[in-house]
Amino acid sequence: MSYIRFGLMILTSTLVMFALMYLNTYAWEHLFFSETRAYMAVVMGATMAVIMLAFMLGMYGNRTLNIAIFAGAIAAFALFLWLVRSQVTVSGPSYMRAMIPHHSIAVMTSERAQIEDARVRKLADEIIAAQRREIAEMRYLIADVGAGNVVDDIYEDAPPETGTVDNAVDRALVAALDPAPLEAEQAGEVVELGEDACRFHRSPESDPILWATAEGDAGAMLLNNVIVPLEGDGQQFSAEGASMTVRELGDEADWRSDAELVFDMEEGPRVGYRGFWSCGASPE
Question: Which spans are transmembrane here (predicted)?
C-alpha cells in the first residue's frame, strides 16, 4: 500500500469525522462552521494516523518516512490540542458559531430523552427554552458584531443588597429579563389578533415571543410571567419602559432566519434575536 493512499485515507477520515460531529445537532439552521470542531477533527486524524501506521508497519517499509509520519502526527496532535484548549484563534463570532451547534445538541437530547420524573422533565424544558433563546441571540450577534458593531459596556443590575426572602421574591433582576414564548390564547387576553396575526419566533419549534395584529397597531409579549399589551406602529411595538422592533432581513435572509427582533428596555438591557417573522394562519 502506498504512502499517498495512506495519507488520503487519513485525510478522508478526518473530513468525515468533522462532518459526523454535526449529526447530533437539532435543526439545519443550527449548522455553523466551528473552528473548535475542525481542530478536534485534526486531533482525531493525527491520533488515527499514529494508531493505523503502528498496526500496519509491515506494509510500509520506509523507516525514515515512518518516523516522519509519527513525528508529524504527534506534532499535529499537540498543536491542535493546544489550539482547542487555548482558544487563541477563536474570536467572538467564531465562538458563537461553535456554540450554536453545541446548544443545538442540548435541545435535541433534552427534547427527545425518555424522561419520566417530573422534576427532570421540568429541568429539560428549562434547558430547551434557554438554549433556543441563546441560539437566536447568537445569530443576531454574529451578524451585528460581524458588521463592526462592537459594544464595550452593557446594562448591569445594581450590587446585591441585604434583605428578606420577601424582598428577594419582589425584586426582579432586570439584566436577566427577556421576552418568553407566548401562546396565541394568552396573547389574545390583551389584544384581538384575528386570523391574520403576525408573530416572531426565535425558533420554528417554539411559541412566538411577540404577537401582533396584521395591521401592526397592537401586540403582546410575556415578560417575567406578565402578559404585556403593546402599542404598535408598523413593526415597532412598545409599552411604557420597553419596546420590541422587528426588521425583516430581506437580502440577508436565509434558511437560518428571515427577521430580527430587538428588545429594548429604557432602564435595562437591549438584546437582539434572529428568527422568523410571519403573518396569517399558522401552518398545520
Answer: 6-26, 38-59, 65-84
Q: Are 141 and 184 contained in the same domain?
A: no
Separation between Cα atoms, residue 195 and residue 216, nearest integer Å: 14
Radius of gyration of the chain (CA): 25
Instruction: Check whether residue 71 and residue 108 sit in a common domain.
Output: no
Cell of 131: 438554549
- What does the DSSP 8-state code read for residue 204? T
What integer is the mean pLDDT of 136-159?
91
Instruction: Let me know if residue 112 belongs to a domain.
Output: yes
229-272 tens-digit pLDDT: 999 998 899 999 999 999 999 999 988 899 999 999 988 889 99
Nearest Cα residue to 132 out of 221, 33, 209:
209
Whether residue 50 sits in one domain with residue 118: no
The DSSP bridge pattern shows strands 270-279 and 198-201 to be antiparallel
Split at pLDDT 50, 70, 90, the class of 68 is: very high
Tell me, yes or no, whether 152 lies in a domain.
Answer: no
Q: Is 158 contained in some domain?
A: no
Asked whether 218 and 232 are in contact (CB, 8 A), the reply is yes
Q: Facing residues of 210 across strands? A: 200
Calculate the alpha carbon distances from 79 to 15, 32, 58, 194, 275 in Å.
18, 23, 29, 59, 37
Beta strands in 114-225 (DSSP E): 198-201, 210-212, 218-223
Q: Is the pLDDT of residue 284 over 60?
A: no
pLDDT band for position 160 (cuts 50, 70, 90) = confident
pLDDT of residue 156: 86
Q: Are strands 236-239 and 242-248 parallel, antiparallel or unpaired?
A: antiparallel
Q: Which residue range is the domain that position 117 belongs to?
A: 93-147
The three-class DSSP label of residue 161 is coil
Q: State how far the alpha carbon of 111 is from the alpha carbons of 107, 115, 128, 202, 205, in Å.
A: 6, 9, 7, 17, 11
